[in-house]
Amino acid sequence: MRAFNFSPGPAALPDSVLEQARDELLDYRGKGLSVMEMSHRSKEFVEIAQGAEADLRQLLGIGDDYHVLFLQGGASMQFATVPFNLCGGEDTVDYIHTGSWGGKAIAEARQLARVNVAATSEASNFDHIPPRSSWRLTPDAAYCHIVANETIGGVQFHDFPATPAPLVADMSSELLSRPIDVSRFGLIYAGAQKNLGPAGFAVVIVHRDLAGRARPGTPRLLDYGVQAEHGSMFNTPPTFAIYLAALVLRWLKAAGGVAKMAEINRRKAAKLYAAIDASSFYRAPVARCDRSIMNVPFTLADTALDGAFLAGAEERRLLNLKGHRSVGGMRASLYNAVSEQAVDALVDYMASFEAEHG
User: Fold this and answer.
1) pTM beyond 0.85, yes or no
2) On the CB side of 49, how many CA atoms lie within 13 Å of its CA?
3) Is 140 considered catalytic here?
4) Is 170 one of the catalytic residues?
5) Alpha carbon of residue 37 to chain centroid
6) pLDDT at 358
7) Of the listed 170, 268, 290, 322, which one is catalytic?
8) Choosing from 43, 65, 94, 101, which is the catalytic residue?
9) Three-class SS state of 23
10) Of 129, 178, 269, 287, which cross-links 262 as Cys (Cβ 3.0–4.6 Å)?
């Protein structure tokens, strides 16, 4: 039996996806070779890539007025790619700072534009989303950037703001976990290694009006217009990662789509938060109204027990529960491929550990 994997990324993949990839590893559909070995220009791979895009469009309701791009570099590459494409060096861009990944995006953007940090929760250790009434947006900003779900800190936008400038969202750790209205965004990007597939690429959903206007000097590999014109194949794409993402998207459709997944994800998170809140031994550091459904950080009353907790979890094959090195504690990531059975096993273990050490 496979272990229960609570890793924040690279994260759990569905068993059936891994089994199909295993079965096709040496011989993809009778072609006599692996997807890893075939040309990205071949009929077979083009069908894989086009099928993945079509399924993603269907699952998220992405209209024809948006490009869908599969790009290398992960979400971190997009921290620079976004300002290269959406603003000039003298333009002002608004950023809402809600955690570690927002901070990294801000640092990158500051090298390429005038950054206005329109709101931040840094003073309270990023334990909440700053209320919309506190935001100080720039009237003529080129765009407004948010991190929809902070993977490390565990805060999440449950409602997306209306902004005068195009809204740009890093959705790395929540894309495909719930329905979203794509039309509210100018651009969405996400690293693949959470709910979409393995590490190695990012998906970018960008309104056509925002593509093809990169500033002079933008490397062509980072130009959304160039990538759209070439179908995300301006250079050789990460073929095997895209193939696995295509399998994940088909699995997600067969499982009922994002609405069904949202129902399951809410139920999983509710079970874990209920166990934390019912105890004085565990604590969730995030304001209740902004708690993430995808990433649940929690601490033990006695940090000296952290090592014993993690060792006991490993013995029960509950893996990757250690919190990020910047914040400590524990963190359980509850992505789409993490089953309710896994959460039930974690909750049971937490109760038994508290009974022994509380």
Assistant:
1) yes
2) 25
3) no
4) yes
5) 28
6) 75
7) 170
8) 101
9) helix
10) 178
